[in-house]
Amino acid sequence: MRTQNMNRDWIATARTLSEALPYLQRYSGAVVVVKFGGNAMGDDAAMAEFARDIVLMKQVGMNPVVCHGGGPMINDLLGKLGIESRFVRGKRVTTKETVEVVEMVLSGLVNKRIVQAINDAGGRAVGISGKDDDMMVCEADDPELGFVGRPVEMNVQIIRDLYSAGMIPVIAPVATGMEDNETFNVNGDTAAGAIAGALKADRLLLLTDVAGVKDASGEVVTQLHPDQVRTMIADGQIGGGMIPKTETALMALDEGVRAVVILDGRVPHACLLELFTEHGAGSLIRSTEPRVKPHGLRQGEAGL
Ligand SMILES: Nc1ncnc2c1ncn2[C@@H]1O[C@H](COP(=O)(O)OP(=O)(O)O)[C@@H](O)[C@H]1O
Ligand SMILES: CC(=O)N[C@@H](CCC(=O)OP(=O)(O)O)C(=O)O
């Protein structure tokens, strides 16, 4: 019977909402930095879905901070300009010419697309980059990479001011240098980690285009201790863009972030699944003992 089926659907929906209550209570006031990678962004519908999840997080009393990437979009524009993209250990080799394109794409096209999507979903997004209020000051990461920055000074009060005033900061990973006012291209994961570390965030969610950190047999490892991550980098199980991602996770944990999750941003409602359900998503990296549940909080655990 159609009516009975509909009733069953409604009851299931109500049950899901009810089951979210302990998570909503525990995460109230929590600072959650969400890194939205270029590969995770997808089409307009996927972007709208992501934006709704971020607005929902804000609506229920969390403080989401979005830090984005946009590597594929930079590749596109560089390609149109006839400039080749080259990466070393997951980071773009960035010339003076390239960095202008990087800033145009990240602080312009990508940042404003996300801001607009969040505002369309009823949030109050404000787009900034690491340059605003000197939020992120960098020095050169490695001479081989050119204008790629490594954050050395973080001034995150601007972010706290924005979320305390009801807004959702959306941050492009472009920063100022210590000298000569250079512009630095910062890997999106590195920037998100530095921001999460400086905020001592409760969670850092790194959204990407794979289901999580995979081992040599291609299986996603749902829970990782930092020592396991170090081993997997050293023995080559972790490679490419996953290197800056996992290195970021380790650094963020060292700086006081409670836990880092690497998850598949292409899965609908990935953030909600991770934060508000028992199921979780992707690979969780933290220093403490494994949880009873695969993701989220340990059963009976009081804190985050
Ligand atoms: N052990 C691993 N587990 C998962 N992905 C890995 C691993 N080693 C390398 N990778 C690669 O890392 C990529 C994710 O990094 P990247 O492309 O930079 O993502 P994003 O653009 O979302 O920041 C994956 O698509 C995959 O090709
Ligand atoms: C230094 C460096 O590699 N910067 C990145 C910044 C964008 C980024 O990180 O984008 P994703 O998160 O989509 O990969 C780049 O130029 O591609």
Automatic annotation (TrEMBL):
Catalyzes the ATP-dependent phosphorylation of N-acetyl-L-glutamate. Keywords: Amino-acid biosynthesis, Arginine biosynthesis, ATP-binding, Cytoplasm, Kinase, Nucleotide-binding, Transferase. The keyword Oxidoreductase does not apply. It holds the Pfam family AA_kinase. NCBIfam families: argB. It comes from Paracoccus tibetensis. InterPro entries: AceGlu_kinase-like_sf, AcgluKinase_fam, ArgB, Asp/Glu/Uridylate_kinase, NAGK-C. SUPFAM superfamilies: Carbamate kinase-like. Residues 31-263 form the Aspartate/glutamate/uridylate kinase domain. Substrate binds at residues 70-71, 92, 185. Its EC number is 2.7.2.8. The record marks 35, 245 as: Transition state stabilizer. It catalyses: N-acetyl-L-glutamate + ATP = N-acetyl-L-glutamyl 5-phosphate + ADP. GO terms for biological process: L-arginine biosynthetic process via ornithine. Pathway: Amino-acid biosynthesis; L-arginine biosynthesis; N(2)-acetyl-L-ornithine from L-glutamate: step 2/4. It is found in: Cytoplasm. This is Acetylglutamate kinase. It comes from the Bacteria. Belongs to the acetylglutamate kinase family. ArgB subfamily. One of its GO terms (molecular function) is acetylglutamate kinase activity. The gene is argB. Its main location: cytoplasm. One of its GO terms (cellular component) is cytoplasm.
